[in-house]
Write a structure and sequence with these properties.
Butyryl-CoA Dehydrogenase, subunit A, domain 2; alpha+beta; eight-stranded mixed β-sheet; Butyryl-Coa Dehydrogenase, subunit A, domain 1; globular; 3 domains
């Protein structure tokens, strides 16, 4: 028997996450949109609601709810603010290497503080040369007296200016086949965030660059073992980063559907609501079908994670489908709103802008198809 239902605990958590998003996150959205900042306030709200603790095991101060719980939280937050959901899911991405690959000392040092939001985490892989090919990494490390010295630059890093600990992928400058992940902590000499990006959408979500100039990193800050960096980084991105993007996409699709149904029921043309027009009904049906299919793909992959399996292929499918569907849903929502869909007073204009950022994040749609093709051909 295949059970497609949520547990009672998961249903209660969904309700709590929705109430949290609507009461605590929604009031900050106008400021985020107007200033392209405001992230400190929403991060504080996320911490107070224990949202960062969802995937962290209980023995390290977490809630241990699992990846279905994380997907539920991300979806409900994204329904109100895709920008906040993006920051939230990448903090979870940053936590993942500590959970899966951290030493006991690293877990005890970092995870309790991540759980409370006292400290925040992210992963830095993408460089100006590209993010789809991590082997093209130009950030280098060199072993010096038992420790390491890092030099390089990362770009398009979500939470670049807010994270206290960043898991950075680097290549051995003397061995181009050796990649290692390092925990870089705020305040390390030579390590700093630099440029802040101004994206077309997800305003208020911090994205930027980090710079490393002769950063001395102690050996205890190697995570996952020397030479194991690609495994650490790609497992986090494939199983958790893309899962987070699915949550962002599903929440956005739900928001588009909610706003469109409301508008279609209230907008009167030809003496009746436009929701009575078959052309409008067909568009709304497409949005609903895509949303239901995407949820099945996404929660199936999260269930595989919670069962202890690898879900990178399933999440590649879900990430491709849901982020493409979110862009489609946002366009349909704008189309149905007509001239109102071009006015910033209406939320659908924000949804359209936000949808454009979903596609390339955590791997473009074309890269997802490459992954799925390899899976099919294997």
């Amino acid at each position: 028997m295949i059970d497609f239902t949520f547990t009672e605990e998961q249903e209660l958590f969904r309700k709590a996450a929705r109430d949290f998003a609507e009461t605590k996150i929604a009031p900050h959205v106008p400021t985020m949109e107007e200033t392209n900042r405001g992230w400190d306030a929403v991060i504080k709200e996320l911490a107070e609601a224990e949202m960062f603790a969802v995937t962290i095991p209980e023995e390290y101060g977490g809630l241990g709810i699992g990846y279905i719980g994380r997907l539920i939280a991300t979806e409900e937050i994204s329904r109100v603010s895709v920008a906040t959901a993006m920051m939230y899911q990448v903090f979870g991405l940053g936590i993942e290497p500590f959970i899966k690959f951290g030493t006991e000392e690293q877990k005890k040092k970092f995870l309790p503080k991540f759980a409370t939001g006292e400290q925040l985490a992210t992963v830095a892989v993408t460089e100006p040369s590209g993010g789809s090919d991590p082997k093209g990494c130009r950030t280098t490390y060199k072993k010096v007296n038992g420790n390491y010295v890092l030099n390089g630059r990362k770009c398009f890093i979500t939470n670049s200016h807010t994270a206290d600990a960043q898991v950075v992928l680097a290549i051995d400058e003397d061995n181009p086949e050796s990649f290692t992940c390092f925990i870089l902590e705020k305040g390390m000499e030579g390590f700093k965030p630099t440029h802040e990006e101004h994206k077309v959408g997800m305003r208020g979500c911090n994205t930027g660059e980090i710079e490393m100039k002769d950063v001395k990193v102690p050996a205890e800050n190697v995570i996952g073992g020397e030479g194991k960096g690609l495994k650490v980084a790609m497992a986090a991105i494939g199983d958790v980063g893309r899962g987070g993007m699915v949550g962002c996409a599903l929440g956005l699709q739900q928001a588009c559907l909610d706003e469109t149904v409301k508008f279609a029921n209230e907008r009167i043309l030809y003496g009746k609501p436009i929701s009575k027009l078959q052309a409008i009904q067909f568009k709304i049906a497409e949005m609903k079908i895509d949303l239901e299919a995407g949820r099945l793909l996404g929660y199936r992959a999260a269930a595989i994670q919670d069962a202890g399996g690898r879900s990178s292929n399933e999440f590649a499918v879900a990430k491709y489908y849901t982020t493409e569907a979110a862009q489609k849903a946002a366009k349909i929502a704008v189309d149905i709103h007509g001239g109102y869909g071009c006015m910033e007073e209406f939320a659908v204009t924000r949804y359209l802008r936000d949808s454009f950022v979903l596609g390339p994040s955590a791997g473009t749609s074309d890269i997802m198809k490459v992954i799925v093709a390899r899976w099919a051909l294997s």
